Fold:
Amino acid sequence: PVSFTMHRSVESAVIRVTNVLGSEVVLKEVGSIGSGTTYQEQLDLSKMARGVYMVELRAGEERIIRKLVVQ
Structure:
């Protein structure tokens, strides 16, 4: 799972996964997340090619990015 800790409460957020070329491969809307809450998402990337992906959680002006390697 990929985890993110929010610094403030948000009404909604979006998880976006892109490949190394910047092409979007997953886009998922997320409900509200409380301040100081660690949000975890289990992403099924089993059909994706091996490689490095960027997982971005965007909530309002806050943006958190994690690197994910699919082997």
The CA atoms of residues 55 and 69 lie 10 Å apart. The chain has a mean pLDDT of 91.
